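Batch 3, record 17
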Amino acid sequence: MPTRGFIGRRPPADVADRLPPGQHRTDDFPVLSLGPTPIVNLDTWKFEITNGPRPLATWTWAEFDALPRTSLRKDIHCVTKWSKFDTDWEGVLIDDLFAIAGITAPTAFLLAKSYDGYDTNIPVADVTGGKGMIATRYAGAPLEAEHGGPARLLVPHLYFWKSAKWVKALRFIARDEGGFWELRGYHMYGDPWREQRYTGDP
Amino acid sequence: MTATPALAWQAAVIERIEQRTARVKSFFLRASIARHEAGQHVDVRLTAPDGYAAQRSYSIASKPGDAAIELALERLEDGEVSTFLHDVAIVGDTIDVRGPIGGHFIWRAELGGPLLLLAGGSGIAPLMSILRARAASSRDTEALLVYSARSWDDMIFRDELMEMERADPRFALVITTTRDLPRRPHDLGARLDAEALRSILRSWGKSPEHVYVCGATAFVEVVTRALITDGMAAERVRTERYGGAATRGSDG
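Prediction for the assembled complex:
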């Protein structure tokens, strides 16, 4: 039902076309995290891919930083309603990590795990095929700690809570299991274009 | 996966509007949403006659179980939703809400304390819900609120908080004003930095079990970094940040 007296401020058509339902555009880069920004030391940083608890590949920062990087320019959408257009990321595609480590996905689901204890689930199909990366640079500079540096998962076509900050591991899991927010009322998949914000959304 | 019913949009009637500060009004909504937990938020949706809709997330300031849910909203000059609610909406109007939402930034009486609450500006809203829930509970949870506001008159809930402090020896309130003089001996007329926070905690003398921080990103970063540097376990610290034009608490 219309809200009495509400006209609203429609964005121009070229902006509106890029906004998923219920989102509005911001030029800022808001920060949303469940707790304090962790201090991640590059000397002890490592990133690993595991099958359940079993390690498949591990990189130190020096090794990871030497991997071939890819640039992605994407719109990002936060479940708290803001969207930011044309964000510039640089990092290592998950496709490349799998190829370099000789990994064939043993299951269809991943759990991304972070240095602050956060985790989130993503189907393997949503981070492969050029769709996801471990990002280490934003707008041409090393990724700031507030935004997940030194490295975060980037899965821009899903709500941004899926793009785990301060990522330390990708774990193949046999079944799709919810992570931190998914166990606290947020949607298991999180497609902004279908407005899958909360548990039970279509 | 278990089938969980969707959080449906509900019509909420604006029952009362109260001017809290020059820029903040409280909207009291009557809606048939589930009982919330202290610290949670709701989504608000406004719909134009042609179907265009705008949504925002706002923290709930009232305590769980109150007949109406209170949203304390700052009027942002360029805010599509906050300017409408401040300038156009009147008592008796209906807006859509869904919720309650959020399963992390919450406090229940059985979690106990001591509780350290750090609020920056309109970040007080979810912390107010926690303080009201605490005041209504029968347990004697120790609590300290450090509330950073621009000025004495920009403090939302100022009189209620001061009354709470007067009536409750287990609740301490420290007000820090960034552009105003301190009004009471233990208040501070400066930005809350690591040194000031350290000194405030020393005077309080308790060791916080649960910490809730809500405010602008810069505020949250400064105070949480100070706590962690001084040895606070990160798991005890829950945060909600808003940065710039768009997030809960002080949203457009």
